[in-house]
Amino acid sequence: MSKNKLKTEKPESKKPRGNDPNVLKQDKEVEVKVKELVKDERTHKVLGVICLLLSLYCFIAFTSYLFTWEEDQDKVFRYSASLLLMDMDSVKVENLLGRLGAFVSHWFFYKGFGIASYLFCYLFFILGVNAVVGRRVFRIWRNIKYILFGLLFISTTAAFVSMLSDFPWGGAMGDAVNNWLIGFLGRAGAALLLLVAGLSWLIWKYNFDFKWLEEKLKAKPKPAVAPAAVPEPAVIAVTPQQPANTKEKEPRRKNGLRESGVSVIPPPADNGELPEMQLIERADASITLIPPANMSASEEEVEEEEELEEEEAGPLLYIEETVEQTASRNKKKPNTEDVAWEIKPPVEEAEDETEEEPVRQPVQMDPYEPTLDLRDYKYPSLELLDNHSTEKIVQDASELDRNKNQIIDTLKNYDISIQKISATVGPTVTLYEIVPAAGVRISRIKNLEDDIALSLSALGIRIIAPIPGKGTIGIEVPNVKKSIVSLRNLLASEKFQQSSMELPIAIGKKIDNENFIADLAKMPHLLMAGATGQGKSVGINTLLVSLLYKKHPSQLKFVLVDPKKVELSLYKLIEKHFLAKLPGEEEAIITDTKKVIHTLNALCIEMDLRYDLLKEAGTRNIKEYNHKFVQRRLNPQRGHRYLPFVVLVIDEFADLIMTAGKEVEMPIARLAQLARAVGIHLIIATQRPSVNIITGTIKANFPARIAFKVSSKIDSRTILDIGGAEQLIGQGDMLVSFNGELVRLQCAFVDTPEVEKVAEYIGEQRAYPEAYLLPEYVDEKEMEGKEISLQDRDPLFEEAARVIVQNQQGSTSLLQRRMKLGYNRAGRLMDQLEAAGIVGPNMGSKAREVNVKTEADLEEILNDIG
Ligand SMILES: Nc1ncnc2c1ncn2[C@@H]1O[C@H](COP(=O)(O)OP(=O)(O)OP(=O)(O)O)[C@@H](O)[C@H]1O
């Protein structure tokens, strides 16, 4: 028997149990009619239009009332509500909207809130707009709060200032509150209260920063705090007023650690650098690592170490930078090490209060403010960006209907009937959500994915069966008229403006038109792929420009790698503000593969140095570290500095991997694994998302990924672990995989001239003397074969030897910090010390062994070498 025959028989036989679409549909419709009506978007629209008309009606009636109240008031008083039912000729009112207008206005103004009644027009207006548009254009609850406050405040204030007027400026409500206030607080008290309430509201709403006030106060000379008030960069005034017996008074934490941060510090939990080690830093900044097994056995040693350290360290030091010093720093090299710092005795460390009383001098210290490096830096304004004209989402009703019908018909061809279909119109695609009829299995639709896409015969159709968490099936169909999402609009949005993210990036708009703004610091790295011409470069510009709108040059540096040589060249203008480069390099934007390898390795060194700093400060990540530095709890003389975020952007990764392979992959993998905690983040883009380019190691460390249109399903799987990116429609249409979710977005658009304008605007402002310098890196291979000769000693050789022997610690970073050397020079010195037998061989991440135990022995060796 044929399938068809069976079907035609069914309706005539017994009542079907859910397989016949027609009958089922009818049943459903009868059941859910009222509910559906309430939920129906048309009902919302009708209500919205009513609200808008109400708003207009009240506005006209109120405005007319302002001019006609005198004539109409008597009549309303006399006839009250019966005025509405009276004969037209017997009572004539002046209000433009007749008796109802006069009556309503009287109620709102006279019996209600006076002039504040206009807020009701606003209320109806926002309710109406939201309902008609079908989404939250205005935030209702927030506005209701403002309206309630406004009704109370405006009516009371109006009543207060117009006590002698006949017009009901404050209405009955305003009069009542005003009278009560005057009785309770007196006239002056009431005036003051209203003033305070008004100002508080303004401050709450606009959050003025009062910087001018702060600057005015700061400009006044401070009472002399210390001799270092004379601007004298690079001079250190040390005032160790702490009594010699400080060590007895230094409080210990429960776990035996001292607050000062120069004692036993637990290693950072997540850096993976020194697992299971305890780190002891002595007063002279030497570092000792003790394996945990020895911990209890060597407790005496630790005590001894601490005592030694306390004797040598003297008091814990606090640091203050004066305004003048900052100014002089701004003129000179804006490096914290180069600043005149005033070093203060501690104020909180004493245990014995009575004994310490005379020594305690509470010193008012401003927190360190990194942005003072370039204090008059102005963030780019939104005016520099264009409002691309097609921003408005075009909702073509006939197109929607056509597509709806086509989807229903297509599904019918496969014997799939549906209960409900709804549409959400996005900037580039419209999402049709389908609820299949009872009994239709979603897997059936999923299996038919390709056939359905084919039947709908439009490019860029994507079927999501089911939409996660919703139990509906989504079919995304491209719009005939697409809208451009301007970056300007995203940056102007409250979500971006008010964002407290560390590195906010405005990526694009979702299908429901919600702005998608994410924190690169949380991602913590981003992988982007897409075939050529699908919107990658625009995407990179979008990310970079978003960061430029939110960050100060002191807080963020970019390392830009552009093998294509042209894509990122615009950013050259902001080299001295926002770019980082290798020392001695001409160009900050790296285009040469060899230099890329050097730069990546230099970034790894920067990462290691940052980890050293974090360890020394007893902090686990850049946020904690910078917080401590800002609080002036870290001493720049020990190499501490404010750490800006570093964002590495590689525009064509495939190119690099093809030419340099492992040499590029290794440092990238290392950075991707470890750099997040120290504020180094990676954005890597590629045209060719094949497995030999996006390797397993790289993929594993890039949980956030963006795919623009790619050429095949395989490419889509390589980048997103799922197909779909091959069905995108290009021009910034993208899929973002982040936090385990896959979201389709329209990437925000920013054109090259806009980027240029922003770069020019920043570039014209006062800058640092040069780009942020990354540590030096010398290729091991280049150094190979070069004999380390003691004849050719570094002029700092003897000093370095003394530092190492005094501290009994063979660590390159100790030399770097103590002698303010670059990594390379410190490394070469260490090799020479090894050649002279002063230290042992390199032991990887551990410090080298120091073979010379006393300074006397060292002097002998130095004499021998001559
Ligand atoms: N978000 C967007 N909104 C609208 N149009 C876009 C968007 N992104 C890209 N386009 C359009 O697509 C064109 C190509 O984009 P883009 O230059 O970013 O591609 P690409 O992937 O970087 O190409 P290539 O790899 O060849 O450099 C742009 O000139 C622009 O017209």
TrEMBL record:
Keywords: ATP-binding, Cell cycle, Cell division, Cell membrane, Chromosome partition, DNA-binding, Membrane, Nucleotide-binding, Transmembrane, Transmembrane helix. It is a multi-pass membrane protein. The chain crosses the membrane at residues 46-67, 115-134, 146-164, 184-204. GO terms for cellular component: plasma membrane. Signal peptide: none annotated. Residues 1-23, 241-273 are annotated as: Disordered. It is found in: Cell membrane. Pfam families: FtsK_4TM (PF13491), FtsK_alpha (PF17854), FtsK_gamma (PF09397), FtsK_SpoIIIE (PF01580). Belongs to the FtsK/SpoIIIE/SftA family. This is S-DNA-T family DNA segregation ATPase FtsK/SpoIIIE. It comes from Chitinophaga ginsengisoli.
